[in-house]
Amino acid sequence: METLSTTIPSGEEERAAWLADAGGLETAIRDGLLSAPVSLPLAEALVLGLMRQGVTKYLAVFGHGSTTIGEILRVYSKHGLVRCWQFRNEVEMAHAATALRWIYGEASAVVTSIGPGALQAMAGSLASASNGVGVYHLYGDETTHGEGYNMQQVPKPVQGLFGQITSLMGQSYTLHSPGALRAALRRGAMTVFHPWRPGPFYINLPLNTQPRETRLRLDALPEPPQFTAAVPGTDDGLAEAARLIAESRRVAIKAGGGACSCAAAVREFAERAGAVVVLGPGSTGVLPDAHPQNMHVGGSKGSISGNYAMDEAALLVVIGSRAVCQSDCSGIGWPNVRDVININADPTDVQHYNRTTALCGDAGQVLRRLHARIVRDYPGCAEGKAGWLKACAEKKAAWRTFKTARFSAELPPDPVWGRRVLSQPQAIKIASDFCKERDALKLFDAGDVQANGFQIVEDDKPFETFTEAGASYMGFAVSALLAGAIADRGRYAMAFTGDGSFMMNPQILVDGVEHRVHGTILLLDNRRMSAISELQVAQYGEAFRTSDAVAVDYVQMAASIDGVMALYGGDDGEALKAALRAAHAHEGLSLVHVPVYYGPDAAGGMGAYGRWNVGSWCEEMERDYEQTLI
């Protein structure tokens, strides 16, 4: 066997081959092969720096501003050190990277060029920023020489405009100097791998600095940061929280996204405290659906039971929630609450409400300590809350009865389709049950599909459903299907989307086949943006410019892509079930088109149970907000 040279060779091709023979970057560092400074292009050093942080997957739309890093990725892909996937749209690509980290826990890097490509990718990154998902974004940028306008830069005589734009969206760094790479990677790691508020990190790469040499030790490239779960420094807050819980007769927990990773602790705590749990769109499954203390979603859309608990609670326990406006009805969702216990790792979010006992730290760790405190000091804590739990259980029963009626309702003929078709709730219920039976992931796109979806799904554990409620980005769900093909261990998933959201990112039909996605697009078609139509009608009595008269044969459209199975989902439940079975059996990407009802019959949707500071409701909402205590 040939002995590996301990001298790092010159040339990208030779270095990549040498690293592969050495067993990869970390093995070479561990074996002491990379302690001497080495000269190499900035673009290659960046790829190695990201490799040090475990980032070896790249999602790319290459342009003239990214040919250098593209060449490095070609060479390193050839030698098995990284992998790269090409896309047809930068927004789609950003969504796929977000889903890859959110669903599968794999950090990746998005690569695109200066100008429209970077702006598109940055627009898509709003989903990762809003949902707290760490992703690297690498953008080609204008040169540092100032030789005149660079093609596709922002046409304004101001220096570093992309750096300014990206810094407004999140944390960013412009590699104006190759020697600054370690600083950029250190800041990037602190953003992408942040323990409670990760997000996108933007590295702007001027065209002329990418190929420029830098000199550094490769074993000095920053590693991902390691964090210890934080808990409150004293017992005073825990003692006060335990006292408030014991003394209150009506305790409600608002479980946000931060509660998903500690669902067992939330359940144990709720049962001991005698508290009901109100979910958000992104926290379904924190308690099993049938658990008697699970009141389902609450907020501007909400549910009968979830909003009842919000209206009547006297003590609010917030767990891992940012108090988004629709989550707490624009600040008036807890009218009878007099005290708040807030558990959150973020020192700003933990202080969102007045009259707060702030327990700043890791939610799971804090809950376990608080639970132990209640067991020790107030062993009969739940006994005095039987009346509250009974009243909430009655509202939960009413919600279940209401849902059953919606699922079995016979609707009038649809005004557009000219015949009876399924309602959106009926179609979502059938498909959601189908996914649950097969342990398939459910991905929800923005709009009415999303709003009805989080009211309908009956999850028994977290992370069965992913609904991009942070930015409500149309086209996220269909693009997120790509993550299953890129992940080391992808799963079958179903993207629930409307006709409006699907047309935002139809490139999935091509990229899904190219990258061998196994998943289904469930396209619920009512020929309009029904969430906005319904809002317009509710506020002003008429819908305006939220529909069109253009008929689209989505089955024929999807079938024109070689490799996509395109199916008509029919007008009744049995036809839809048959189509879903056929789609699931297909080894690649499938699309099931289902016409759904839109019209005056209330059974066409799940209804709304809270309020929201928008449109004609603003004056009344803000008048109510003036009276709030918390």
Task: Name a few traits of the molecule.
Rossmann fold, alpha/beta, single chain, six-stranded parallel sheet, 20 strands, 3 domains, 630 residues, 23 helices
Would you spell out the secondary-structure blueprint of this structure?
Blueprint: H1 12-22, H2 25-30, E1 38-41, H3 42-52, E2 57-60, H4 67-78, E3 83-86, H5 90-104, E4 109-112, H6 116-124, H7 126-131, E5 135-141, H8 161-169, E6 171-174, H9 181-192, E7 200-206, E8 213-216, H10 236-247, E9 251-255, H11 263-273, E10 276-279, E11 294-297, H12 304-312, E12 315-319, E13 339-344, E14 356-360, H13 363-377, H14 386-408, H15 424-438, E15 441-444, H16 448-456, E16 465-467, H17 476-486, E17 493-498, H18 499-504, H19 508-514, E18 519-525, H20 530-540, H21 554-559, E19 565-568, H22 573-585, E20 589-595, H23 618-625
Parallel strand pairs: 2-3, 2-4, 4-5, 5-7, 6-7, 9-10, 9-12, 10-11, 12-13, 13-14, 15-16, 15-17, 17-18, 18-20, 19-20
Antiparallel strand pairs: 1-8
